[in-house]
Amino acid sequence: MNKPFVYAIGDVHGSYDLFQKLLTHYDLHLHQLVLIGDLNDRGPKTKDCLLLGMKLVKETGAIYLRGNHEEYFLQFLQEPEDWYPSYLRNGGRETMESLLHPGAAEEYSPTEIAMMIRSRYRELVDFLCNLPLYYEWENYLFVHAGVDLTKKDWRDTSPRDFLWIREPFHEHKNRTGKTIVFGHTITPLLHGDMQTTDLWIQDQKIGIDGGAVFGGSMHGVVFDPIGIIQDIEYQNNQGPWQPRD
């Protein structure tokens, strides 16, 4: 049954407490929940966030989109020795240690880490391998990073661009006929001042990643077929604003 609203939550990145706060506004009977991706890496509670994301999909029919950090994680598990250095630099340490224990990133080899994670979290890894790249609802398109707007049909976007694209999507004219809701690039960067954590709205594109894990904010945005009904924004007050994207 189609629900009258979509409730979309921006990049979580292990910020479990903010994720839980936003979920208190989730009404299973009214909202189609859409998680925009990047539940893991950088923040301290990746394990809790990933397991909750999987539970929401299996128990409430939520949509959990693949982000570039879920992709990073899976690539590391597939080829741990090759991906370990770059994954570690981009938030992977926090994920490894959340799933295993503090110090695990130094205690074991990359291959041992990957084997332990695969062994202990088989159901989760299988689940992450099957996450969708986008979700369509009414005249909206929900996607982690964006689409290739030079394509005649946006559906021909490469899997990599659905997960990783930045400026070419932000700057190119949106002629898809869809309002595109995305995360990946923090809104302080999109606003151009590295301070403003509000939603970024331009050319039927809506950026909802307020950079929570860097001391910014996390957004939960309620849509009806016409537009935004509510923007719920929780600031991360646990540490200083350290913008990075």
The radius of gyration is 17 Å
* Tertiary shape: globular
Strand content: 15-25%
* Alpha carbon gap, first and last residue: 37 Å
Q: Report the count of strand segments.
A: 10
Whole-number average pLDDT?
Answer: 96
| Contiguous uncertain segments of 5+ residues | none
CATH topology: Purple Acid Phosphatase, chain A, domain 2
How many domain units? 1
Order of strands, main sheet, comes to: 3-2-1-9-10
At the fourth level of CATH, the homologous superfamily is Metallo-dependent phosphatases
The helical percent reads 25-40%
Number of helices: 10
Architecture per CATH nomenclature, i.e. the level-2 architecture? 4-Layer Sandwich
CATH class, anyone? Answer: Alpha Beta
For this entry, give a set of tags.
Purple Acid Phosphatase, chain A, domain 2, 5-stranded mixed beta sheet, Ap4A_hydrolase, alpha/beta, 245 residues, bis(5'-nucleosyl)-tetraphosphatase (symmetrical) activity, 10 helices
Explain this structure to me?
With 245 residues, the chain is an alpha/beta fold. The chain has one domain: Metallo-dependent phosphatases (Purple Acid Phosphatase, chain A, domain 2). Helices cover 38% and strands 18% of the residues. The protein has ten helices and ten strands. The strands form two sheets. It has a five-stranded mixed beta sheet with strand order 3-2-1-9-10, covered by helices on one side. The model has no long low-confidence stretch (mean pLDDT 96).
